[in-house]
Design brief:
CATH topology of one domain: MetI-like fold
Radius of gyration: 26 Å
Number of helices: 15
Number of strands: 0
Strand content: under 5%
Structural class: mainly alpha
Oligomer: single chain
Largest sheet: none
Length: 310
C-alpha cells in the first residue's frame, strides 16, 4: 500500500516512480530471447530493404559500371540520366515516351476508383451495422464470398458484360471493375468499424427524427476518420499496383503505369538498359511508398480503433 502511495506522490510531484518495488519497471537486460528478437528483426529488415538498395544504386549507375558486375557497390560516378530516360524516353513498345504516360493514366484510374469504392463501402457498412434491413446477413455473406473467389474466374464474364454495355477498353470500364472488386473488403472494414460505435448515438439520432442520409452525413461520417484513412491506403495500394485488370480492361490508351513498366522491362529491341529499368520500377512504386510514409501512423491508429473488430 505504501508503494502505491509513493508512486502517486512521485507522479504528482513530477518525480520518477520507484523502481525497487517488485512490480516496478525492470532495467533492460540482454537475454537470449531479446537477442533472438532483434536478430529476426534485422534479418527481416535486410530481406525487404536489400532489393530496394540494389534497385536504387543500379538506377544511379551508368551502364559501363553495371557491366563490371559489382551489384552491391555504390556508383563511382552517380548520374540521374537513367531516371530522365525512364520518365520521358523509355520505350513501352512502339512508343518511346517513358512511363510518364502511365503515371497520368494510373491517376485517372485511381482517383475515381478509390472515391467510389470507399463511398459505397461506407454506405454499405453503415446500412448493415445500424439499419440492418431484412436479409442483411445474407447480403453481407454474399459480398464476403466475392472477396474469396479468384479474380481470374470473373475475367471472361466481365469482358462480355462490359462489351455489351460499351465500356470495354474504356476508362469508365476499368473504374467500374476496381469499384466492384473493392466493395467486399471496404464493406467489411466499415461494417466492423461502425459495429464498434455506441448504438445509443444512432438511437438518439433516430429519436430526433434523423433520416438515413442525415444520420450518415452528420453523425456517422464525422466519426469515420480513422477507418477512412485505412480504407484509402488499402485501395490506393491495391488499385495502383494492379496489373491484371489494367492490362485487360483499360484499353491501349489508358494503360496504367504497371503495364507500361512491364513493357519497358520486357522490351527486347536494342541494348537492355538495367539502370533505366530500375529507375522505372522505383518511379512506378513511388506513389504507394509516399502514401505509406505520409499516412502510415494514421493507418495503425485506424486499425487499432476498430477496423478489424466485430
Amino acid at each position: 500500500m505504501s508503494d502505491i502511495v509513493d508512486v502517486k506522490l512521485a507522479v504528482v510531484g513530477g518525480l520518477p516512480p520507484r523502481t525497487d518495488a517488485p512490480w516496478g519497471p525492470k532495467p533492460g537486460r540482454i537475454t537470449p530471447a531479446r537477442i533472438g528478437v532483434y536478430a529476426f528483426l534485422v534479418v527481416a529488415s535486410l530481406f525487404f530493404l536489400m532489393p530496394f538498395y540494389v534497385m536504387l544504386i543500379t538506377s544511379l549507375k551508368p551502364m559501363s559500371e553495371i557491366r563490371l558486375g559489382n551489384l552491391m557497390s555504390l556508383p563511382e560516378v552517380a548520374t540521374i540520366q537513367p531516371w530522365i530516360d525512364a520518365w520521358a524516353h523509355a520505350c513501352t513498345g512502339v512508343d518511346c515516351n517513358g512511363v510518364q504516360v502511365g503515371l497520368f493514366n494510373s491517376l485517372r484510374i485511381l482517383v475515381p476508383s478509390v472515391i467510389l469504392s470507399i463511398a459505397l463501402g461506407a454506405i454499405n457498412g453503415y446500412a448493415l451495422s445500424f439499419w440492418r434491413p431484412r436479409g442483411s446477413n445474407l447480403i453481407f455473406a454474399i459480398l464476403l464470398l466475392g472477396a474469396f473467389i479468384p479474380y481470374q474466374v470473373y475475367l471472361y464474364p466481365l469482358v462480355r458484360m462490359l462489351s455489351v454495355v460499351g465500356l470495354y477498353n474504356r476508362l469508365p470500364g476499368i473504374v467500374a471493375v476496381h469499384t466492384i472488386f473493392g466493395l467486399p473488403i471496404m464493406t467489411l472494414l466499415f461494417r466492423n468499424y461502425y459495429a464498434s460505435l455506441p448504438i445509443d448515438l444512432f438511437k438518439a439520432a433516430r429519436v430526433d427524427g434523423g433520416s438515413f442520409w442525415t444520420i450518415f452525413f452528420y453523425l456517422i461520417l464525422p466519426m469515420s476518420g480513422p477507418i477512412l484513412v485505412v480504407a484509402t491506403i488499402l485501395q490506393v495500394t491495391g488499385i495502383w499496383n494492379d496489373f491484371l485488370f489494367g492490362l485487360i480492361f483499360a484499353g491501349r490508351e489508358n494503360l496504367p503505369m504497371t503495364v507500361l513498366l512491364n513493357n519497358v522491362v520486357n522490351t527486347t529491341t536494342g541494348v537492355r538498359e538495367y539502370n533505366v529499368n530500375m529507375a522505372a520500377t522505383i518511379l512506378t512504386a513511388l506513389v504507394p511508398l509516399l502514401v505509406y510514409f505520409v499516412s502510415g501512423r494514421w493507418f495503425v491508429r485506424g486499425i487499432a480503433s476498430g477496423a478489424v473488430k466485430g
